[in-house]
Amino acid sequence: MKKFKEVIMENRKVVEECMIVILLSMLLLSPVSAHSTAWCEDCHQVLVANEGLFAYNGSDFIDLTWHLEAGIRDPSDIREFISNLGVTTVGDVVLVYSNYHDSIYMGIYNGSIQIRMKPVVGWYSWKPRDFVFYSGSVFFVAETGSGPHYASDSVFQLNPRTLKVEKTWSLAWNARNTIAPENAGNTPYAWVHLGLDDNGKLWAKVDMIFPNTTVYYLYDGTNFVMTNETLKLHPYEPPNGPFKIEIQRGLMYYLPKFPPVYGPTRYILIENDRRKDVTDEIKKLAESVEPLYSLIGFWNEDEKEWVVVYDLYGLPLAYEVKGNCTVPLEIDYLPLASYLGYYVVLGNGTLSWKNYTVKTPMRMYFGHNTDYPWRKGYVSLELYQKNGHPVIVFPWEIWQNQTWKGKKGYLAYEITERGFVIINTTDKKELGKNLIPSSVLMGKWNNVTGTLIVNIPNKTAFLITDKEKIPVNFTVAKKTESVVVGNSTFLFITYYEAFILPPWMKPVSVNRMLELYREMDGKCLEEETGVSDGTTKGITFLTGIATIVIFVTLWRFWKKKE
pTM here? Predict the structure, then answer.
């Protein structure tokens, strides 16, 4: 019996370590954000959260992404906040919530464009879910604890009017401390779910391992009380309106930058049992406001121009950069490269170029352990060039013999004049030149065309090519995630921006071009778009001075004639 207990304890420790690895893997490989919708009865609108936030009132789409008031100023932090947004309807209240810096923020949407958000659960907390409206309060489950490796499910009671948490129950630990407390580790190995029974009463169900069992708690109006009952719970059903928007997300692609995840997305409006694809309308809305992320960029050799792709609402927003102006590309899904005047487009499990379309891998791991949920529907993608041809590469890995050791290779799609040539190889040299290599830590980026070296203490940055060592703008270089090489020019892509170099010390901001394009209602304005905003202000100031001088000169000339 003693040996049996020792085996159990050893297995428990192994499981604990494995679960920590699994948790980290899921965090690293999870999509950029969840997606959710909510119906606002008072304002007769449907609210949609998916890498941004917008509303639909039956006729118009309204952006809410940039109208969240959470007291956050840093652009990168704002984007982290937005990428973790969710929405839900509980009773007659529409909640907007976000996990930001491992805290939970919430706000109420009532039809007003401005949404005030505030923290309701502090660090460490994660994944609010199972929202239930019951007896005038909002109940929900979230992970909480002293840190990510010590977090467990707790139930929170929220006042929907004040957005204050009034009570908290650590039911996962309560169940563990009641049943086999000696099997606890850093976490209780117990998970909580909220639901209603057939009579509409609120219950919490706690699923456990060590041993495998389920415990039920009944909410008696004051506390959750453990019972001996076993019953079937129903999730809380939020109210629906006369129309709703369905979000269809496809595979999740890992691009060679951070944040790396892109998922082909379509939006379907459902009204009176009719379905209508409204993706193009939502894309127009996305083009009218500031984008969320920069996704990718490439050099169009035929047009001698850059193409830069951004993201908002999970939709790729592609722009041609023409001089000091950006022009939107009307392309469904994500353009990756151009060849002979046509774009190579990544769809949901497909690649298209000209009149050719081929199917691509649906996962990146094969063999052992492919049933884990975070491996289904995730695909890595890399971009190469070979003999002047774009090459889209999908890395793969096979795990064999129940071990971590395996075989790695690449499924490469080379675009030629006759369409796609597909090769499967384990030799990276057959792929050609890596156009967007993965970022290298410690401020260094490398590929065969050059190296970007960033010296943080000295606040200097240098781009080293085959021919020369060029000082470049340190502010831009230090936040660069990937560098793309064009025809004697470079594209520096950051978390949410893109810059064209040269000019080396005052790179051209593509984001500033987009801003001017929106301000001019889709027209191009020839204006300085470099990093330094002082240049434009200086030009405006000098123009004003020149106007005054001309006026005074003309006035004196007119006076003399009198």
Answer: 0.85
CA atoms within 13 A on the CB side of 299: 20
φ/ψ of 516, rounded to 5, equals -65, -40
**Residue 508 token pair:** 């051209």
Q: What is the pLDDT of residue 525?
A: 60
550-554 long-range contacts, CB within 8 A, separation 24+: none
- Which pLDDT does position 528 carry in this prediction? 55
Convert the pLDDT of each residue in 512-543 to its tens digit.
Answer: 999 999 998 877 765 555 664 333 333 333 33
Contact 362, 377 (CB under 8 A): yes
CB 321 within 8 A of CB 511: no
Question: Any residues with CB less than 8 A from the CB of 398 and at least 6 apart, and which?
Answer: 365, 366, 367, 406, 407, 408
pLDDT in tens, 206-250: 999 999 999 999 999 999 999 999 899 999 999 889 999 999 999
The DSSP code sequence of 21-89 is HHHHHHHHHS-S---EEEEETTTTEEEEESSSEEEE-SS-EEE-GGGEESS---HHHHHHHHHTEEEEE
306 exposure class (CB count in 10 Å sphere: 0-12, 13-18, 19+): buried
Distance CA 260, CA 253 (A): 8
CA distances to 71, 159, 203, 214, 394 from 231, in Å: 44, 28, 10, 10, 47
- Name residue, tokens 């019953």: 231
Q: How many angstroms separate the CA atoms of 149 and 21, rounded?
A: 10
DSSP tally for the chain: helices H, then strands E? 7, 46
What is the rounded CA–CA span in Å between residue 244 and residue 268?
Answer: 8
Closest CA to 312 of 330, 285, 335, 276: 285
352 three-class SS? strand
- CA distances from residue 57 to 48, 88, 243, 271, 313 in whole angstroms, order as listed: 11, 17, 9, 12, 17
The mean pLDDT value of the chain amounts to 85
